[in-house]
Design goal:
157 residues; alpha+beta; two-stranded antiparallel sheet; 6 helices; 13% strand; elongated; binds zinc ion
Amino acid sequence: MTECVRPEELQRWHSLVLMDAPARISLEASAGVRCVWCDASTREAGVDLGLGHIPLRCCLTCYMGRLAWMATWWDWHDHIAACAACLRGATCYVARGRRALHAATIARGGSGPMCCHLCHGQVADHEAAVAVAWSGQSGVRLSYAHIVPCLVREAAR
Ligand SMILES: [Zn+2]
Ligand SMILES: [Zn+2]
Ligand SMILES: [Zn+2]
């Protein structure tokens, strides 16, 4: 799995994981023998979260789920940034496809439903939306925004 992820992306992913690791974890999870998210044993197989002195680990199921969530988010986001139709706000089937692929990873990505970072409302399937990264207090968050009315209103300010 790691061959298809560039080192800098993996690094970015690790830094996002650091923010997402739950604040309260079991004693065994804090010792690295259980997954920080689902509490499954990581003795046989697990992924080091790479936090240096903190030995946190997660199980392969959570790792793959979160990696798929992140990889499909970036695919969708990077397409929008490079696509003339998307930048005009026109209907784009490539973007729709990438959004659908991303949406399919949400259940296992541990991230909850898609919510608009501007209005905090949930983004319904039929609503036009984009993947947007924004800088919060704790670093970059991978998020979403409704095109209408939220982004349009924001652009008009
Ligand atoms: Zn897990
Ligand atoms: Zn497009
Ligand atoms: Zn919104």
